[in-house]
From TrEMBL:
Keyword field: Immunoglobulin domain
Segments forming domain Ras-associating: 349-435
Protein name in UniProt: Tapasin
CDD domains linked to this entry: RA_RGL2
Top-level taxon in the UniProt lineage: Eukaryota
Residue ranges annotated for the Ig-like domain, each copy included: 127-248
Organism of this sequence: Chelonia mydas (Green sea-turtle)
Example of a GO biological process term: antigen processing and presentation of endogenous peptide antigen via MHC class I
One Gene Ontology term, aspect cellular component: membrane
Classification via PANTHER family: TAPASIN
Transmembrane regions: none
């Protein structure tokens, strides 16, 4: 085993099905070493689906990463793939150099690994170019997923390969430990391993089409968080794609005592407890005490807010102390829907919605933070940015809230989404406008998504916030 891995710059040239060599070869960068240029024919097009920034402009982290390594065809040594190579010897067609490439675009929700066979007979006009064909490609459109506790999760995985037998393996890994969640033997047509709650969506494609081998997990819990590896076995070939599943659960915030009555001039103590959340790190806001002068007495307001866009939750608790006669405290929550609260209790000024694009990846939801200052253009820009789309396309879309019983609510450009949204649903869709619908006014089309409010943040792992008042 080598003591270290040497990395060298390489260039990947993608072509469709080749009907002959091109008349002119592309100009190659002069600083590349000989043999570091790979001219790839991708008949099924799995490598061509890697999304690239439009117009050649890209933000940090948007460009896909690419890695190419040497590959050795060999038979698989797992029981569910043993039937793929009954003769126990390699055919002559496996001779010659092989490579495997991995292209990952996490910011665009796509990743693909492809086994490449070099074409010794097809000679390039430039000796430094290696010509190869993608034989097996394994891809995923959900390389990174987030889920609440108890939800069902679909881990997307598919592959393209010549017609023939195959086997599928889904393996789970977390902090050095791992296990096989599901293993399917395509030769015998049965599953060797299938954990409870794991279901394989097997849909074989025709020649040159995709084969779907996605995995569904029912009612996920904390034990499901980790890395899932989808491996496809062909006779003497295999490739895999890794997917990350993260579990998030918003916290419960309780006040003790609740209700709290305070006699005039008497001291009082309020405890704010954050519990029942995952992961264990939360981002919260310091409690803020505001004093308001009122006739005939003093009024104090205690505000405790927890708001996290990344972990998909937003909660707040308020307590109102009123001088004079005994009066109970009020307590409200802003998750998952606008709550009922005592008259005069201030609402939360941030909320998390789930938004998807009515495009090719229309089933993928992203968590979006909406504040009390956000109008329709600002929310549209946030959705576009989360889904990796160009912000300049904002005037071409309209924001629609998906309501129960198939109903919808379309927001005009001047609507304040925080106050105009229906409290019965947090699901939204960004839909292209029809030909007769007016675009956003130029002043309303944002250049970039901006949060309209910022909060002083502290780190905590579950705490009680107590404060003596008066």
């Amino acid at each position: 085993m080598p003591s270290s891995v040497t990395q060298r710059r390489a260039l990947l040239l993608l072509r469709g099905a080749r009907g002959g060599l091109p008349e002119t070869e592309p100009e190659l960068p002069p600083d590349l070493e000989p043999g570091m240029v790979f001219d790839i024919t991708d008949p099924a097009g799995a490598l061509h689906r890697v999304p690239l920034p439009a117009g050649g402009r890209s933000k940090e982290g948007e460009l896909p990463s690419c890695e190419i390594n040497a590959y050795t065809p060999q038979e698989a040594h797992v029981p569910w793939a043993a039937g793929l190579t009954p003769e126990r010897r390699s055919p002559l067609g496996l001779g010659g150099p092989w490579f495997i490439s991995s292209v990952q675009a996490p910011a665009r929700d796509y990743g693909v690994s492809a086994v490449l066979k070099s074409e010794e007979a097809a000679m390039s006009q430039q000796p430094a170019v290696i010509m190869a064909t993608a034989v097996l490609s394994v891809f995923s459109r959900t390389p990174h997923l987030h889920s609440r506790l108890g939800w069902d999760v679909l881990l997307d995985c598919g592959f393209t390969a010549p017609p023939g037998p195959f086997s599928v393996e889904w393996r789970y890994q977390y902090r050095g430990a791992g296990r096989v969640v599901l293993a399917y033997d395509g030769v015998s047509g049965r599953a060797h391993v299938a954990e409870e709650g794991a279901q394989l969506f097997l849909e074989e494609g025709r020649a040159g089409a995709d084969t779907n081998v996605s995995l569904r997990l029912s009612q996920v819990g904390v034990r499901h968080e980790g890395t899932y590896i989808c491996t496809i076995y062909l006779p003497h070939l295999h490739a895999q794609q890794a997917l990350e599943l993260r579990i998030t659960e918003p916290p419960m915030v309780t006040l003790h005592p609740d209700p709290l009555s305070v006699a005039p001039g008497a001291p009082a103590e309020l405890a704010c407890e954050v519990s029942g959340y995952y992961p264990l790190d939360v981002t919260s806001v310091h409690p803020e005490l505001k004093r308001k002068a009122r006739r005939g007495g003093r009024s104090y307001e205690e505000l405790c807010t927890i708001c996290s866009e990344q972990d998909n939750y937003s909660l707040s608790r308020q307590l109102l102390f009123q001088g004079g006669p005994r009066r109970p405290a009020s307590c409200g929550s802003a998750f998952p829907a606008p709550p009922t609260r005592e008259p005069g209790a201030p609402p939360s000024d941030c909320r998390i919605i789930r938004a998807r694009m009515a495009l090719h990846n229309g089933s993928l939801y992203k968590s979006i933070l909406v504040t009390s200052q956000d109008k329709t253009p600002s929310v549209i820009a946030k959705v576009l940015e989360k889904h990796g789309q160009e912000l300049g396309a904002a005037p071409q879309f309209q924001l629609v809230q998906l309501l129960p019983e198939g109903k919808e609510l379309t927001f005009p450009p001047t609507a304040n989404i925080f106050y105009a949204m229906n409290g019965s649903s947090l699901d939204f869709v960004l839909r292209p406008k029809g030909p007769g619908e007016p675009p956003l006014p130029p002043s309303a089309a944002p250049r970039r998504a901006e949060l309209s409010a910022t909060f002083p943040k502290i780190k905590a792992t579950g705490r009680k916030l107590a404060r003596a008042l008066f």
